[in-house]
Amino acid sequence: MTISVLLADDQSLVRAGFRxxxxxxxxxxxxxxxxxxxEALRAVRALRPDVVLMDIRMPGMDGLTATESLTRxxxxxxxxxxxxxxxxxxxxxxxxxxxxxxxxLTKEIEPDDLRQAIRAVxxxxxxxxxxxxxxVVEEFVHRPLAATVAPDRLTALTAREREVVALVAGGLSNDxxxxxxxxxxxTAKTHITRAITKLGVRDRVQLVVLAYETGLIxxxxxxxxxPVDGL
Length: 231
Fold this sequence. Notes:
Blueprint: E1 3-8, H1 12-23, E2 28-34, H2 37-47, E3 51-55, H3 63-71, E4 80-85, H4 90-99, E5 103-106, H5 111-122, H6 130-141, H7 159-169, H8 174-181, H9 185-199, H10 204-213
Parallel strand pairs: 1-2, 1-3, 3-4, 4-5
Helix pairs in contact: 2-3, 3-4, 4-6, 6-10, 7-9, 7-10, 8-9
């Protein structure tokens, strides 16, 4: 299966570089380009790419605003966003998470890492390791712009799914969740997938954000602090 990609960056040389790099990849195809957030949204609606590589700083509508508009549109749920920037700062990571991005990369990324990132996001994964997810999200929920979500948002989950979500938010990988609950890794992944579907979030990172915002897990807790039943 070929992964379709849209390049959104106001610098034509940057787009040309990414296009040239990805052209050599059999399972990835660049289907369109955009030089602003407005153009990116129009292109996404017309082309429905699997992944958008979205620059943050663009004229008119910036990349974060475009990302938020895209991720909040249910008709575009099949498109995921990787935010790109030349500035590797936490502030941009937090802003990208708030906007609903599935990943965050700097433009200095190695070619093979970029290809793997696109494949990961297209497959439904997020571009933050479990430990990085926990660090970023804990910092994220302490900030004044972090939303508070009613705990009853989680009533759609079974008790086991709540356990799994809490452990994922505590920084555990699928394999570690499986070992902790004495289930298979496939079963752990299935629980995570079902939780994402039931809660209407786009990916693992947004699932973790929701776990903190609803109070399912408190900032500062580790996975070792969490009970494995009765959550």
